Amino acid sequence: MPNVKSNIIVCPACRTENIEGADLCQNCMADLHAIGIADAFQAPSESDLSLPLSSLRLSRARTATPQTSVRDAITVMRDDPTGAVVVVNNGVIAGIFTDRDVLRRVAGRPETLEQPISTVMTADPVVLDESAAIAVALNKMGVGGFRHIPVTRDGALLAIVTGRDVMSWLIGRYFDESGHIDTKP
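The structure corresponding to this sequence follows.
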């Protein structure tokens, strides 16, 4: 069988191979964001990380409109284990508001509580289709330094994947009840 690489995209500027899902080339820092999965080498992979996000038990996405007050969004987040609200405007994902946004943009600034969430949300968040590989979500989270990614189906919000969702899946898949690596096939 020929040596075919999977989950690799080639930088159009310098021809360096990068992991699928990378936003910048590791060699020349060229923008790879626009390079779609279709442009990547897509040989079947033996890794479970090549399974689609739909294989995970995804978290239900809590939503708000851009006009929702910061106070109301925090109230929704308080009782939700994901710690995030996806901001949707006329059916389109406009942003995300997370526990980290609360700490960075709201804490210590009580005047922001009555402002619309659009003033403190992270606009234009990374969004993945449910068919994207788990490895792509992990890469996006690691490179971007965030823990929440809205997941879509046919362009519409379906769920949210969190770092906790992925870790729970990994632990359930690879570790036995005693916490040891499960070596069974």
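The chain has a mean pLDDT of 84.
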